Amino acid sequence: MFPETPADRIGRLRTSNYDISNVCNLRCEGCLYFSGAGDEILAAEHSIEMWRSFFAAEANRGINFAYIAGAEPSLTPDRIRACHEHIPMGVIFTNGTKRIDSDIDYRIHVSIWGDEVGSKRYRGADINSKAMRNYVDDDRAVFVMTLNSHNLSEVAAVVAQCADNGLTLTFSLFSPTREYNAPDAARSGADLRLSADDLAAARDVMLQAEQLHPDTVRISHPFINWVTQEGSLYTLDEAQVATDCGNRLTRSHVHWNADLQRNSGKCCSPNLDCRDCRPYAMSLATYFNRRRQMPDDWPAVWQFWSELFLPVRRETPALAP
Predict the structure, then answer these.
(1) Is the pTM of this model over 0.70?
(2) Which structural domains are found in the chain, ordered by start?
(3) Counting Cβ atoms within 10 Å, is residue 288 exposed (0-12), middle (13-18) or buried (19+)?
(4) Between 221 and 32, residue with greater pLDDT
(5) How many CA atoms does the CB half-sphere of 98 hold within 13 Å?
(6) Which residues contact 156 (CB under 8 A, 6 or more apart)?
(7) Residue 283, Cβ density class (10 Å: 0-12 exposed, 13-18 middle, ≥19 buried)
(8) Is 42 exposed, middle or buried (0-12, 13-18, 19+ CB in 10 A)?
(9) DSSP 8-state symbol, 153
């Protein structure tokens, strides 16, 4: 079970997103990093001293929680360590193929796309067993299965495998990039986008998985009901960009590219099509941004986020309100 992390002990989080790598050893269908991206993802800063100075400056401007991604961040462990030296809390989004050192006590969210056959189909390689061996009984790790229109029947096998390895599992929803949604999109396989019927089926599958494996599966019922509702979760402007997204970049919340330059996009995942945006981390941020709309369920969903994202190997740092 997760330890208690009451909201009144968390204080104010000051967050930013960091792409610390521009390379990956997989090619997932509709990748949020590579799909439709421009030249700004091509370069990376390789000097570790530059990274240390950068993260020290981030800490000095008040950042106390880092969202670390890439391409694949585990391929650059020295940059993870540079961040860990300066920013007290964080989460690393990884494919799990390379274990992150045990003394890095950030949460580690390991993406999983299906069972062993499905993983190879959707991302070019079957990496499930390797990822689970890397993080067996590791209380930092949360495995995150991305549900799509073709893998709902694979959930039972994935949950059972996680349970056998002492791993926690939660869920995300496949969300297409603008490139993936384009009328002339050249997709490498089956269309993974979720229809309204698929969303309803996904909701039922997640609820059933939790009921059958309550010690393995972590979900929030209010959040699941909200994120699987029919239609867009957002109000869109003329350019089809969400105006009420909790991940829009601000002067404080910045998305940094691997070359240590600010990303010029709209949000932390600039390639995503706002019309169909439903990934778990981004959607949770938006849910929290709408606290007045959901006052009864908001505390429970905030507790759910705390259990998945805050560190478990030390006392939760006391943050300024």
Answers:
(1) yes
(2) 15-309 (3.20.20.70)
(3) middle
(4) 221
(5) 12
(6) 209
(7) buried
(8) exposed
(9) G
